[in-house]
């Protein structure tokens, strides 16, 4: 259980605070509701580029990292398709250093042509190294493009193509900054051993003076229901062929999410799960196998993927996946199977709450989802999933016409 208090400042900034009496560290997390889903299809990769630019200094603080280091702190950030997250951990006595720095770069980022060109080169090189010049690097990009035809989930956070970043102008990135980096587009979450009212007062002190500059949000097109199976086969210079089958499912806040997550753990939650025992240990079709849910804010994917052993044909693996789905639809898992995965979920959740940074991040994330109390209700929701829910989810989701299959064949 994570106790918390919330407040929305006059400029629209949402603040969530938690008193953690067990840690001498403070965690300050600032989540901006901008990710790859908010980008123009002709100008992708901007959210990730901005993650880099936000560390390039402001008019007041040219070197962002130096004050953090002088305060004995650590900081980092990440971008995904749904949001961008910045976080700082430091001794609780130095918490105002973090709040000062984050409030300063929310409105005072110093974007110069030289800084922009430097970070563009960094991001383009990252694109090449991680996605274009690495074995299996473009596999997730191909899968996204196969599964999504309208929704911006069809590209990853790095973007569609490096030339989108290469062509970005100073005016482009300044417009993106004004549109997305402002108080009403952000959530500040803090976990520290301080009185909650004190943390709320500090948030007011450092962020209330900032003026909001909201802009009308761009509409995000909904992905139409898939009505026919899709397939793509590519050949790459990789060690082994992989087969990936993805099915459309509900969003992170849909009632079926916990059922889908439990199903993924039943199938691939470790070496004792069904897919590993059957397809790796038993039939020896695969060297590795996984099933997972994407957990996106908008309707996402349930994905099966496996790396084939030499001599195994992709068709055999596709049929093996279908057989495991049929078994789950017709044969209830044993009480031991379901209790094991539910206990694992509960343990992971409770252990995560021991970390002050995890708490701050989770509070910001669930506030973004629009249901903050989920942070304390998810264990009960997960434990409430029964076999009828599992069977109904499998029949509704794992249909041939809802499947997108990517064969990533080794040369």
Based on the coordinates given, report the CATH architecture of the largest domain: 2-Layer Sandwich
Count of DSSP-assigned helices: 15
Percent of residues in beta strands: 15-25%
Domain count, please report it.
2
Binned, the helix content reads 40-55%
CATH class membership of the largest domain: Alpha Beta
Q: Which superfamily, in CATH terms, is the homologous superfamily of the largest domain? A: Metalloenzyme, LuxS/M16 peptidase-like
Describe this structure in words.
With 411 residues, the chain is α+β, with helices and mostly antiparallel strands. It folds into 2 domains: 5-207, Metalloenzyme, LuxS/M16 peptidase-like (Cytochrome Bc1 Complex, Chain A, domain 1, 2-Layer Sandwich), CATH 3.30.830; 230-410, Cytochrome Bc1 Complex, Chain A, domain 1, CATH 3.30.830.10. The protein is built from 15 helices and 11 strands. It has helices at residues 46-53, 65-70, 95-107, 113-132, 139-147, 162-166, 170-180, 196-207, 257-268, 274-282, 314-330, 335-352, 356-369, 374-383, 387-397, and strands spanning 5-8, 14-19, 25-32, 74-79, 84-91, 186-192, 230-236, 242-248, 286-293, 301-308, 403-410. β1 and β2 form a beta hairpin. The longest helix is centred in the first third of the chain and has 20 residues, at 113-132. The model has no long low-confidence stretch (mean pLDDT 95).
């Amino acid at each position: 259980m994570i106790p918390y208090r919330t407040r929305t400042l006059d400029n629209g900034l949402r603040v969530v605070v938690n008193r953690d009496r067990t840690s001498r560290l403070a965690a300050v997390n600032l989540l901006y509701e901008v990710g790859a889903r908010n980008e123009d299809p002709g100008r992708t990769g901007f959210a990730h580029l901005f993650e880099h630019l936000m560390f390039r200094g402001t008019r007041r603080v040219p070197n962002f990292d130096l004050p953090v280091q002088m305060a004995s702190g650590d900081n980092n950030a990440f971008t995904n398709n749904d949001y961008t997250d910045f976080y700082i951990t430091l001794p609780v006595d130095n918490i105002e250093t973090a709040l000062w720095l984050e409030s300063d770069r929310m409105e005072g980022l110093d974007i110069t042509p030289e800084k922009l060109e430097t970070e563009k080169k960094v991001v383009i090189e990252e694109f090449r190294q991680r996605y274009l010049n690495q074995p299996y690097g473009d596999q997730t990009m191909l899968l996204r493009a196969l599964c999504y035809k309208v929704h911006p989930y069809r590209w990853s956070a790095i973007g569609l193509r490096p030339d989108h970043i290469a062509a970005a102008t100073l005016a482009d990135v300044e417009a993106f900054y004004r549109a997305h980096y402002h108080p009403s587009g952000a959530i500040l979450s803090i976990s520290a051993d301080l009185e909650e009212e004190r943390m709320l007062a500090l948030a007011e002190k450092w962020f209330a003076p900032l003026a909001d500059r909201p802009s009308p949000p761009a509409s995000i097109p909904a992905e139409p229901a898939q009505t026919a199976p899709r397939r793509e086969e590519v050949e790459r210079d990789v060690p082994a062929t992989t087969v990936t089958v993805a099915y459309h499912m509900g969003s992170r806040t849909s009632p079926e999410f916990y059922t889908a997550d439990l199903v993924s753990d039943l199938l691939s939650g470790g070496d004792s799960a069904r897919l590993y025992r059957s397809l790796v240990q038993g039939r020896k079709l695969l060297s590795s196998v996984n099933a997972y849910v994407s957990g996106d804010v908008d309707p996402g994917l349930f994905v099966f993927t496996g790396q084939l052993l030499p001599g195994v044909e992709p068709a055999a693996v596709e049929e093996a996946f279908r057989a495991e789905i049929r078994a789950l639809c017709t044969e209830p898992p044993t009480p031991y199977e379901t209790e094991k995965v539910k206990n694992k979920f509960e343990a992971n959740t409770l252990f995560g709450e021991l970390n002050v940074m995890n708490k701050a991040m989770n509070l910001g994330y669930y506030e973004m989802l629009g249901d903050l109390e989920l942070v304390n209700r998810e264990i009960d929701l997960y434990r409430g999933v029964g076999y009828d829910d599992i069977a109904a989810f499998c029949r509704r989701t794992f249909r041939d016409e809802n499947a997108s299959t990517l064969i990533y064949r080794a040369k």
